Amino acid sequence: MNYYQRIQKAIDFIEDHLDQAITIELCAKEACMSISGFYRMFLSVVGYNAKEYIRMRRLTAAYYDLLQTEEGVLSVAIKYEYNSADSFTRAFKKQFGILPSKVKSVSSQHGINEFVRLNIMEKYFETGNKELEEKYPDIKVIKELEDMKVACFTYYGKDPEHHAFETMKKWANENDVYFHDMSYRIFGYNHPDPSNVDDSQEIYGYEVCVTISDEQFLRLNDVPADFIKGTYDEVKRRILSGGKYAVMSVKRDDTGDIGSNIIAAWKRFVLWIGESKYLWGGSQYLEEHLGFSEKDDHIGGVDLYISIKEKRQ
Questions:
Q1: Mapping DSSP to helix (H, G, I), strand (E, B) and coil, where does residue 301 land?
Q2: Boundaries of each HTH araC/xylS-type domain copy (predicted)?
Q3: Are residues 174 and 81 part of one domain?
Q4: How far apart are CA 274 and CA 253, in angstroms?
Q5: 54: Cα separation from own chain's centroid
Q6: I need a surface site. Which of 37, 150, 228, 306 has the fewest CB within 10 A?
Q7: Does residue 132 lie in a domain region?
Q8: Residues 6+ apart with CB under 8 A from 76
Q9: Residue 217's domain is classified under what CATH number?
Q10: pLDDT in tens, 203-252
Q11: Taking the CB of residue 222, how many other CB atoms lie within 10 A of it?
């Protein structure tokens, strides 16, 4: 389950409980995220923090209750978790510019600042080819993945994933960045792309990237422009290019292994793109690592992202 789907689960939970007590802890649990990680990701994806979203959705629901039913102001206020009619009236007027008691009398002349339920999948994902979506329900197309500022480290040699992760974990902990609280996004990929180098499968490079704040980004040095392959002398910085991506989630099997499932997923991507309206894009493919232990060991699944572009007509 990718980040967008996690936030959608939280939104669906909120929508089902607008007239009940809702805590951020419950929303974060529904999204399978830490509270701090949920705060950051919800704001990033939705554009409002979770408390603002809940407040505006409750007020919109309250407006339609007052317009379409015979419920009184106090009854509606209590229904949507307001302590008094006065506090509800102040919030309602600030949001819509009218008193809740006047909704029925002015509704036909007054256009309200309605806040509609958000559907993440419609907002961020492309749809349209029903036949292909039914055949490949596990593959989604993100309309526009934003550029991301990251700290990164590449290790070249045997078992590069392990060495790159260990270096990044050490740097992250020294800078108060913890993978397991899901406040940050962790990506990895072969570096350089193995299709462009003549090496055995045992000796190759792997880069691990962690999203960071602007302040942290300023403290690091850029990846050298002439870097082709090797091991970085220290953690560097780069910007992962955004754009249109197809994404698929990969889980571990019953033994805890994930490698064979990742290989199978890449093969499935090849089949999908051959039947789709897309071509391979020019940006770096990405493996987003999800689910970490308290020691920041990766124990969860992986979301695979491939850069795509539409075929010319």
A1: coil
A2: 8-106
A3: no
A4: 27
A5: 19
A6: 228
A7: no
A8: 62, 65, 66, 88, 100
A9: 3.20.80.10
A10: 899 999 999 999 999 999 999 999 988 999 999 999 999 999 999 999 88
A11: 10
